[in-house]
Backbone:
């Protein structure tokens, strides 16, 4: 099997957009946590504390999503460099590892999204119970 130097470059645009989306999620959640902490300091509501814990888990997952996304990009660039020096076997393995890193990043992203959806469903169930009462 041969690998052209352009093949790892295909991951650049996808990985860059994914990292941008991850960063936006991180910044949004960080802002929500700051607001909830301020509210918790005033009210000492236990449900706010539980929500902050949930968001803290999501922030940790996003950090790992970013880590594996950056690793994907790094391995792609390193693979291109190795292919430039005509080291096909090493380049193929580096490209494989970069795709595996992207796959891990996307898997963690799915986990983080499912946590987010479950939290939103919990909020909606409270609204539905109030509506039915």
Residues:
């Amino acid at each position: 099997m041969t690998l052209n130097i352009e093949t790892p470059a295909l991951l650049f645009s996808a990985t860059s957009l994914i990292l941008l989306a991850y960063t936006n999620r991180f910044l949004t959640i960080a802002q929500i946590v700051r607001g909830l902490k301020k509210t918790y300091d005033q009210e000492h509501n236990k449900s706010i504390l539980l929500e902050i814990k949930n968001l803290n888990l999501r922030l940790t997952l996003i950090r790992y999503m970013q880590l594996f996304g950056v690793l994907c990009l790094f391995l792609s660039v390193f693979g291109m460099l190795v292919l430039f020096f005509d080291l096909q076997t090493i380049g193929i393995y580096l490209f494989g590892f970069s795709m595996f890193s992207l796959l891990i990043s996307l898997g963690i992203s799915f986990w983080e999204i499912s946590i987010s959806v479950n939290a939103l469903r919990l909020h909606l169930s409270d609204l539905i119970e109030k509506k039915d009462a």
Notes: DSSP finds three helices and no strands in the chain. Residues 88-132 form the longest helix (45 residues). Residues 103 and 111 are 12 Å apart (CA to CA).
